Here is the input.
Amino acid sequence: MEQSNLSAKTSPGECRQCCQFCDKLVEPASCLKMGCRFIYTYREEINGRLYFGCLHKVFKVEIDQEMMQEIERSKLGFGGVKVHEAPLSHCPFSVDSTFRGKGKEFDCDNMQFFDCSSSDRYCYKVVEEGSERTV
Here is the structure.
């Protein structure tokens, strides 16, 4: 399949231009901690639980806030959710590669997926294993 056809079928949160198959993940717990103004909450009438989500649909799911906070206290934490729409400038995200391998077919063809360029209207704070950098 041609790369242009493959690229057309991906969302802003995924890259399929090489054999690594990368996905952007945003950590909703970080959105709450930073007090993001685009987080909304609502209380479910039936069970009385409080849920939150992103107005810009950077992450598409609505999350039970009490459950997430309980999981955050565990050793592993809540973790990331796949990015649905392009992250905003203040959204911390990480990139997870599905496949790792050696050889030309595993060489990244889209380094801009990890960073932003000066012409990009979005810039990202990239959180990688063991390090953090702003681009």
Notes: The beta strands are 14-15, 22-26, 39-43, 50-54, 63-64, 81-82, 92-97, 125-128, 131-134.
